[in-house]
Each structure stands twice: as C-alpha cells, then as structure tokens.
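Appendix B. Chain record.
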Amino acid sequence: MAERIYHCPVEVTMEVIGAKWVPVILARLKENDQLRFAQIRRLVPGITEKMLTQRLRELEGVGIVDRTLVSSTPPHVEYRLTAEGRSLAPVLQAMFDWGRQWATERRLTVTSVLD
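Structure tokens predicted for this chain:
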C-alpha cells in the first residue's frame, strides 16, 4: 500500500483529531490531569460507550492518550494526555475560544458540565 500524500498540514491534523467526538474528548482530558472512563462519559453527553471506547483506543493507538490500568479495589482505567496530546493544547484552546465567540455572537446556548 502506498503512503498517503497530504496536500495541506491541516489534513494531517484533521486525520488525527478530526473524527467525531475526538476534539471534545481531548478538550475534557486537557482540562483534567486524568479521568476515568465514566468521568469522560459524563463530560461528553451524547456519546455512546461503544463510540467512546473506540475513540479512546484510536487516540491511544496514535500516541495522543495514555491508558493506565490502576490495580485497586475495584480495578479501574485512567486516561490522560501524553506529551504529544498536551502539545495539542493551543489548538484545542483556539477551537474553544472560537466556538465561544461564535456562540456568543449568535446567541447560541452552550452548557458545560464544568462551568
């Protein structure tokens, strides 16, 4: 199979973080040092468990998210951004700021679990 040729760096970025729900998941992980699966699910209303699992696995596979099994009672899994994931902070912040401004100008309602 031939290596994919990109025509713009934005294509590369979108391939990594452009899938549905990914920017929101990353933004929530950016806001928190680490989160359990159920915490992410609560912070991303509307996503199914199956989709969240799939997106987290994809992000782990490309090295953006780190998954750690914590052997406590009961055992659980925690997710956090890797160094490469944290390098997306300016991109995510720009998306957040732009979205907030767009919503304000158009009087759109934006609710946040963390606000």
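Further analysis of this model is presented in Appendix C.
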